[in-house]
């Protein structure tokens, strides 16, 4: 099942604001283009500051409202359709669902990654705000799933999307992605797994998109381990996710995962209830 976008014009404006042949752009757009993209739901006004407690409460409400089977279907649907705005929510949902009760003093939280929007944003802030988050969501399937403000934005946008149902082919694609784990050496890390998936062209994607896809599979626990458990099993604060001795910039827990850790079948069963990913069912 394919879901048509209402218009590609607003999305093109969003893309062109932040990305071009030379990579990143400033985010500046004309007022006319901004109004078009805003009307179509691709760009947004700079948000008013919301307290840490309010963000966590909004997340709790959304987690109760969203059916996790819809989240799984959205991720799977993205594999064959390349609709990355559907892919992103898997990381945000399972991260937000795992955030423990806690308090924060100041404009940043080292537990959940929350950062306050500014009371008096400058021109750079105004050119980014929620818009750069939405660009990353459409471009790569998100990047900042483990920051509370991105998770909130992602979930808020997800509930506006039409619901989708994963096809049998989508489920097979997930199996093909995970089967690649068993083709590598036990000491290999997520970088080697990304290279293999990219080289085999398991799905229509590029290196950066697959990097994010693997990070998401780690956040929800599919690629986690006893040494680096997923957030639902043991929530990690900002420091413990990325200690100074780490030499890669992957998201936790994929940044500590090795092929020898394998696939967390329990987490995978919780996340993808309709997909049997036991080793014997992956064709390996």
Structure description:
The protein has 284 residues and is an all-alpha fold. It has 13 helices and 2 strands. It has helices at 9-18, 31-39, 52-65, 68-81, 84-87, 89-98, 123-140, 148-158, 168-179, 190-200, 207-219, 238-241, 265-271; strands at residues 19-20, 23-24. A two-stranded antiparallel sheet has the order 1-2. A hairpin with a 2-residue loop joins strand 1 and strand 2 (23-24). It is globular.
Main traits of this protein?
two-stranded antiparallel ribbon, mainly alpha, 284 residues, 13 helices, single chain, globular, 48% helix
What is the structure about, briefly put?
It contains 13 helices and 2 strands, in the order H-E-E-H-H-H-H-H-H-H-H-H-H-H-H.
Q: How many helices in DSSP terms?
A: 13
Number of strands: 2
Structure classification: mainly alpha
Could you give the order of strands across the largest sheet? 1-2
Quaternary arrangement of the chains shown? single chain
* Backbone shape: globular
């Amino acid at each position: 099942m394919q879901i048509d976008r209402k218009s590609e014009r607003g999305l093109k404006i969003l893309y062109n604001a932040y990305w071009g042949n030379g990579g990143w752009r400033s985010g500046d757009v004309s007022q006319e283009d901004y109004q078009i993209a805003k009307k179509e739901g691709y760009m947004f006004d700079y948000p008013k500051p919301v307290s840490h407690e309010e963000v966590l409460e909004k997340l709790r409400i959304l987690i109760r409202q969203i059916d996790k089977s819809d989240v799984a279907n959205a991720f799977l649907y993205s594999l064959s359709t390349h609709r990355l705005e559907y892919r992103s929510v898997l990381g945000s949902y399972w991260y937000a669902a795992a955030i423990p009760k806690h308090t924060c003093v100041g404009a940043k939280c080292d537990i959940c990654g929350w950062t306050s929007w500014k009371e008096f944003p400058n021109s750079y802030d105004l050119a980014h705000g929620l818009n750069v988050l939405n660009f990353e969501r459409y471009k790569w399937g998100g990047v900042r799933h483990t920051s509370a403000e991105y998770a909130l934005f992602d979930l808020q946008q997800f509930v506006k999307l039409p619901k989708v149902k994963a096809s049998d082919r989508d489920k097979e694609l997930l199996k093909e992605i995970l089967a690649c784990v068993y083709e590598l050496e036990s000491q290999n890390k997520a970088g080697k797994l990304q290279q293999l998936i990219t080289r085999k062209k398991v799905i229509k994607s590029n290196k950066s998109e697959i990097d994010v896809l693997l990070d998401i599979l780690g956040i929800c626990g599919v690629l986690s381990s006893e040494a680096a458990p997923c957030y639902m099993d043991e929530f990690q604060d900002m420091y413990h996710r990325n200690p100074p001795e780490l030499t890669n910039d992957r998201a936790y827990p994929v940044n500590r995962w090795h092929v020898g850790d394998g696939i967390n079948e329990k987490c995978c069963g919780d996340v993808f209830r309709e997909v049997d990913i036991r080793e014997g069912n992956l064709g390996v």
